[in-house]
Amino acid sequence: MLPMSSRTLRAFTIGLLGSALLFGQATDGNLAGTISDSSGAAIPDAAIELLNEATNIRVSANTDGLGRYRFNNVLVGMYKLTASKAGFQTASLQNVQVQLSRTSTANLALEVGAVSTTVAVTEAAALLDTTSAQVQTTYDRRQATMLPLTGISTLGVINMSLLSAGVSSGGGVGYGTGPSVGGQRPTNNNFMVDGIDNNNRSITGPIVRVSNEAVAEFSLQQNQFSAEFGHSTGGQFNTVIRSGTNQFHGTAFEYFQNRKLNAIDEQFKRIGFRDKAPRFDSNRIGGNLGGPILKDKAFFFFNYDYNPTGQASSAKGAIFVPTADGIRQLDSVAGLSKTNLDQFKKFVPAAGAPVAGRFASVRGSQIPLGVLSVAGPSFENIHSYTVSGDYNISDRDQVRVRYLHRRLDSIDTIADLPSFFTPSIERAHLASVTHFHTFAPSLTNEMRPPTLAGSRTFR
Known about the structure:
Layout: H1 4-20, E1 29-37, E2 47-52, E3 57-62, E4 68-74, E5 77-84, E6 90-98, E7 103-105, E8 108-110, E9 118-121, E10 135-140, H2 141-146, E11 167-168, E12 180-181, E13 190-193, E14 196-197, E15 215-223, E16 236-241, E17 249-258, H3 266-269, E18 280-294, E19 298-315, E20 319-322, H4 324-332, H5 338-347, E21 354-362, E22 365-372, E23 375-392, E24 397-412, E25 422-440, E26 443-447, E27 452-458
Parallel strand pairs: 1-7, 1-8, 6-9, 13-16
Antiparallel strand pairs: 1-4, 2-3, 2-5, 5-6, 10-15, 11-12, 13-14, 15-16, 17-18, 18-19, 19-23, 20-22, 21-22, 23-24, 24-25, 25-26, 25-27
């Protein structure tokens, strides 16, 4: 058996090596500030406590010689900040918001007096990030569930980024996924879930789409971001999954869209649709539940939604095939392979009326051709699962578990003939376990085994 000191050193070395293999990630927010007296002089060694009233999780720290404090890796949410020092009245700042990927600044001034006397500030002012020059927009859970654009299309909450300055649609040219940020191509975007790499290497865009009902906070960073966001030069899209609290909470939801609720698009008016547009029915239903596993220590959250979408059949372009008379002529052409011709007749239906001037020359015979009308069905069924777990071992150690799964079933109609339409089955998942340990306000270690992520398509 190794001596205790050697085991500790080995564990510490493995932790550092494991972290070195990972890119820097942003999974939550930080809070920093200064504690001073009424004259503005710094108060060193003041006791600072940060309380999450939803989970009753407390973290503590002390100010340094310049009266500064800092809390790292704080889950996004609303907190109560309290500062105390012998010879001063205790001061509290409530409704302190910790935002994703941002270091907010909250300062407190202590008045001379007894520690037992508490001066409570019931509402914190808007907190600014004074530690960096990054341009960032953050959207909270209420916006994720209330804004209509988060419940449409496969991008979900990523659509909220279009509300930010310097962000526009990618143009619909099929190059990359998501909006264009700062004039860059969508292929330069970076997608993360709780700081976990969620980029699809094959087609760009996210591997797993997150249900807007499972989002605690979503942020977009546009420029001047730090090295931990070094994956891409475009927009940095980071989504944080909801967590449980000390109270059980659940939601049932339904999002519904169809052509009767939507105005007729101009593109349909131009081709003759006046009273109603082509069929479009999208009904997304589901629910979620979160709560404590161990009060004040461990919490869970689960979300499920099911989204069937049906649209009008998509018409193919003009397909010219032999008419019934043309098929009979082919049967009488000498030298043709009967086996091949039988296979042709098996998969290719005969056209109706011939098109004037359209023929196929087969061994000297002019085979009349007509147009075969083909309409491909257009539908998809999506099942999405989101699971999160948080275990607060101590105010210095936290473990977080995240798992997301998406199942999509549709039909591939890229082939021209119905005989070759095939089911399209897509499966995507993202799973991680992360351990955070705070050595000091300026030294935090994040250790994560290899993340399980990927998507597969079967046809």
